[in-house]
Structures are given as structure tokens and as C-alpha cells.
Amino acid sequence: MDALPLGPGIRPDKRLAASQRPSFGEALRFWLKLGWISFGGTAAHLAIMHHELVEKRRWISNGRFLHALSHCMILPGPEAQQLAIYIGWKLHSIPLILLGIGFGSIRYFLGL
Description:
Blueprint: H1 24-36, H2 41-56, H3 62-74, H4 79-92, H5 94-110
Helix pairs in contact: 1-5, 2-4, 3-4, 4-5
């Protein structure tokens, strides 16, 4: 497991290499799939995101994932959706933030 950054300036934020960074369409398909999974709630979404994004696809490092998750845990609101928005921002900036918010909320609007 990679070391967690302990504060500003200790470990600079490095963008993902082009080979690790997914295409917009690939990321869109993943977030759409995750947005429709409602079984298990937040704990299941966090486990799915960790397995898919850290272990399987390697789109984000384990340290970055856990660091972001720790920040999301102290914020009010759904941790999994906040983490999805953060990871979407790290991968593709503004477009995936908006899609992450939309797909994360679509099942709530539909009552699923």
C-alpha cells in the first residue's frame, strides 16, 4: 500500500499518466453502471469503487482513494457520492463531476 500524504507539500499531487487515465467514454460507462446499482448502499458502493478503480482498473492509487475517502467521511452527506464526484474530477475535471452528480442522484429521483 502506498503511503498516504500527510499534508501540503509532503507529496505533490501527480496527474495520472496517459496510459492509466481512462477515456471519457470508458469512465462514463463505469459511472453509469455504478449509478444504477442501489443494492447495499454506501458500503457496497465504496467497496465496488475500491475494487474497480484501485485494484482492477488502476485509475487512482490506493493512497489517494483512502485519503479522499477520509475527507468524505467527515463531510455531511453520502460519502460514496462525494467520493465519486472527487474521483470524476481527478480523472476528467468538470464534465465527470456533473455526470457523477447526475448519475449518483438519478435513482433517488426515480425512487429506486
